[in-house]
Amino acid sequence: MGLKRNVSLATALRYKGQGPFLTYILHRIGGLGMAVFITIHILASFVGGKAGVFVNSIYENWLFQIFIFFCVLFHAINGLRITLLDLFPKLLEHSREAIWIEWAVFLPVYGLAVFVIVHTALGG
Amino acid sequence: MQVTLKIFRYNPEVDKKWHYETYDLDVDEKERILDLLELVKGHHDGTLSFRRSCAHGVCGSDAMRINGRNMLACKTLVRDVGDKITVEPLLGLKVIKDLIVDMEPFFDNYKKVLPYFINESPLPADGKERLQSPEQRARFDETTKCILCAACTTSCPSFWASDDYLGPAALVTAHRFIFDSRDEAASERLHIVSETSGLARCHTVFNCTMACPREIQITKAIGELKMATLTGKVD
Predict the structure, then answer these.
(1) The domain that contains B91 carries what CATH number?
(2) Does the beta carbon of A89 lie under 8 angstroms from any beta carbon of chain B?
(3) Are A101 and B226 in contact (CB under 8 A)?
């Protein structure tokens, strides 16, 4: 009877949940990015040799550093917002403002970090 | 105004796979999406299937995805969604036909939180009402507004992943009774919602709050339940 209930990733991502849903998706990407980074990092240190050197060269790439810093910083700030809202449910009425504050904190810090990474990478 | 209405279609007796059908309609911008669906069913294709009942935002029958977001078709005006409109069934529930989904898993979860008043104590001496102060009543006023349309639950990524999750609507109902000073089963309900298929699966995404056609602060209600399970207090 009927179509299955499964919701594909593509369908889920197309749901128009606006700002809060975007932070949820970015939070997951950040968490996944960090998990993959740490896992490969640990494995590379065990493997050593050419494979280890190759993996290290990825970490040292400035594009990768921009990505991983995004993962860490966004995951941390967004996680802090959610923790505060969970601890103080009354604040949940102001979730929209909380997201604006989150972006207001994230963008300058991340922008500065990207500037420093790029400046360093391009031999500044 | 001219609108292009794209509707998700699936008839299990005819179709192997779902598809979209598009209708060009001449409508007034103040008409509701439900009016457009009625127009298609009445004048273009009588086989189109969708749920509706009161058509005034009270019964909660016609929740569906309109331009990618859960809304009630009877409360959404054409001017609010533009001239290109896509209507699809709710996510996370089996599609029975066209825009009609199988609501059984939704109501199964609803039943799990004991959605009824429980008080085994004898009636007051006068045998009449169990009195409640305006403040006590106001404590759960917000969550009495739920119409069980499932717009919240089917907008929740945790529910998309697993229909074991109680979902926002069931948690809102739990909130309505847990914080009712006359009810005596708060601890039992708190135990139910604190199990792995309950509050722990809420990741504070806010899709539910944004989808609620009654503007219930669902995430706040769930947040209060989380605190109640931590502290054991339901004041």
Answers:
(1) 3.10.20.30
(2) yes
(3) no
B55 in the same domain as B22 = yes
For chain B, the residues whose C-beta falls within 8 A of a C-beta of chain A are 10, 12, 18, 65, 67-69, 91-97, 102, 105, 155, 157, 160-161, 163, 203-207, 209-210, 217, 219-220, 223-224, 226-227
Above 90 in pLDDT, residue A53? no
Based on the number of CB atoms within 10 Å of its own CB, is B84 exposed (0-12), middle (13-18) or buried (19 or more)? Answer: exposed
The per-residue pLDDT for range B87-100, each reduced to its tens digit, is 999 999 999 999 99
CATH code of B222's domain: 1.10.1060.10
Of B39, B71, B101, which closes a domain? B101
Closest Cα to residue B175, out of B211, B128, B109, B220?
Answer: B220
Contact call for B224 and A17, based on CB within 8 A: no
CA of A77: how far to CAs of A67, A71, A102, A103, in Å? Answer: 16, 10, 7, 9
Contact B199, B168 (CB under 8 A): no
pLDDT in tens, B151-190: 999 999 999 999 999 999 999 999 999 999 999 999 999 9
Q: What domains sit in chain A, N to C, each tagged with a CATH number?
A: 18-121 (1.20.1300)
Regarding whether B116 and B87 lie in a shared domain, the answer is: no
Q: Supply the pLDDT for residue A124.
A: 59
State the amino acid at position A60 in one-letter form: E
Contacts of B45 (CB under 8 A, 6+ apart): B21
Q: What is the DSSP letter of B181?
A: T
Nearest chain A Cα to B96, which residue? A2
